[in-house]
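Assess this today:

___
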Amino acid sequence: MSGEELDLDFKYRKGDPQRSAERTFLTPEILELYGESEVPHPKNFRHEPPGRVLTAEVLELYGEEVDAMAQPKALVWENVRDALNGIRPLLRRRLYGANKSSQEFLSSSFPLFSRLKHYQAAWIPRDILAGFIVGMIQFTQVFGNSQTATVRPTSGLNILLFPGLVYAFMASSLYNSLGGTTIAVATLRVSLGYIEDQHYPGGMNGKHKMTDTELMDLHTYIAPGIAFIAGFVQIGLGFLKLGFLYGILSPNVMEPFFLACFLQSICGKVPSAFGLEPPVIFGFAQQFQYLYFFLTNLGSINGWETLLSFAMASTVLVFREFWQPRIFTRYRLVAPIEFILFVIFSIISYLADFRGKGIRVVGSYSYGVPRPTVPDLSYGWPMAFAGIVLAIVTYSATLDSAKVLARKHDPPVSANQELLALGVAHVFGSFFACFPVGAPIGRGRVNQSMGSRSQLSTLVACVFAGIVIGYAGPAIQYLPLCVVSTNMILFLSMSLTAFKELPRLWAFNNIDAAVWILTFACGMLLNVQVGLFVGVSVSLLSLIVRSQRPKVRVLGLLKDTQWGIAALKHHSEIASELPGVRILQIQSPVNYANADYLVKEVMNLALEPYEANAVPPPLPATAFADRRPDDGDPFRHTTVSDVFNSKNPAVRALAYSRSLTSLGLRPRKSIYDFPQRVNGPRTTFSNPAVSTQPTLGGKNTATRVVLDMGSVGYIDTVGIRALEQIASDAKIRRVEIILAQCTGPLLRQLQELATHKIIPQRNIFPSVVDAVVESIGRNRIKSVPADGLVEEYEDDRFWDLPVVPVEGLPVVDYHQD
């Protein structure tokens, strides 16, 4: 190919860069340079099918620049493939099941099947019995939960069957029993009221306010959509392995939130237990509005319903107090007294015709297994927000119950698997008109105490629920509502004992107690959802504020110990500081929020005069006996300087260990009193093993400051700069900074971020004792051999290094505030 043709080729490629990658080919001459000649030269650049594309290397031979837009498709695909290859390890770490085979993924997603391989036939009776008992308990609570959520009382029967079927196969917990929970329905009630205000401010048709029946029908229609969104959010969080976010919900927030939910449900049931029909109340302070309604309508109390409620409450309380412990001790059985009473009162209602006498009953409805329907998701952001909140609340309650139940002998609970199981249960149940569900710890304890060994008990409970839904309709319609309300009051009142922990919490930490009280007060005076948001916000804010002003402790040497170190604040009577060496402990991560405060606090303590009364443990004279090391001796050092200059921290630490009696060292010269320079003036320390101890007492200033980083854990780039500023400013004042307990991720961070430019690598130690021993060795005579000869070790090399300024962090006077 001639030069003119080549120029035309390049001009054509430049004129249409987007298509040039498909129409530019290697000529026979260029192929010949690469030892190839089999591809024929195309006759027409525009119409011939593409052959081999010019590479960037070949184009450079002709002095042509490679246009990024004109890169061949193969190269573009290679770049995309390389990018995907870089993302793949991240996805394997962060996506649930991405690092497992398909068989392992299915096994981990459905733990029930893998557990059945080790299941014993002797466990079947207990699982069946526990399933029936738990199913009966769930049945007695479902009507009360439906009333709290302001949906039709009988619509809650669906949650007994469908969510539990999925959860039984996918749950990592052995004892959790999924179903209705007061925490979920109390939060759902607030969300349904908010959606109603947003979309139906003037009623269903905009002309009149909806009746309570119309409100319940509307809420029954909206609730499955919220459950679907909650499940979708939980599945996404589970696949992204974000189950650890459970930790942001402090127990000091969740416990008062749970109590506020319980009290909201109790206050809503009190009027119904006395025969009053309370209106559906939304807005703030619902609990007090229900109590006000009850007190202002005392004259309308139904005597028959009050009598039924009293009979129900007295029977349950007496049975729990006297008979249930004996039955459980003898037969290991939790008797479902509430379910038995439900059956008895339903029979009495049928025989005495309670409905005809004005006593409220559940009433009839269309029984049978419902057909699946797609939930309505057309309520926009209010529904989405409600779904996100319910996802967090139900997951928190379910995981908390699973962890408590698994403390004894259960296999470990997987937070991500619980997210997936609960999410799939919500999505599946939403197609059968189910509202959000959870697994309260009460039913789980019953399941565990009954001797259940697997989630087969949940499947049995679902079978029982299916029988009830399909065939028990004619009997359920006679159940008195006052009995349902009384049962919920008795059940929830058992959880109010958590108030006893508040005085103990206040004595232990008044900040956490204040968060507890504020969460509960907002949940009661406003609503439970607002209380949850306020509690989480205040809890995180208090954590941030406390992390911005972390504590820096001064450590000292404990008397009569071999390098025992403790905080002076708590052990001032038995601990004191060493002369010339000050030990400071940073008790929090070092990050952008507290970097400035730590710089000032550390420097103030480093430059502050102090009383040094501690005497370092003396070395035995045999520790440095003159001997020649064997060939297999790992400590092949001939001088003390070699020991303390060793890169191995274990060698440096052993240099002052009393147990070290065979370290091969040969002293180099003899002195009696060695002058050591401390901040300019020259101070003389005596040989402790030959004459007297160093001068103690009075005010001293440190020449070496050991920073105990054992409690730091994490340090960001701003924290690294803060350490650099501390080291740089301290060096100007002739104080050397030494870092101790830098291990694991913290050590890698310090090395990767090049802190050694200002803090030398030899000033980073894996233990406080190691750092203190080396600091003392740099401040005075290192060792005393058996023959009285001593090793001089004055490290002046550090002071000869230039001071490196830290950009953006000026030097300040730390004695002025």
Summary: The chain has a mean pLDDT of 75. The two ends are 80 Å apart (CA to CA). The chain has 31 helices and ten strands. The CA atoms of residues 23 and 44 lie 9 Å apart.
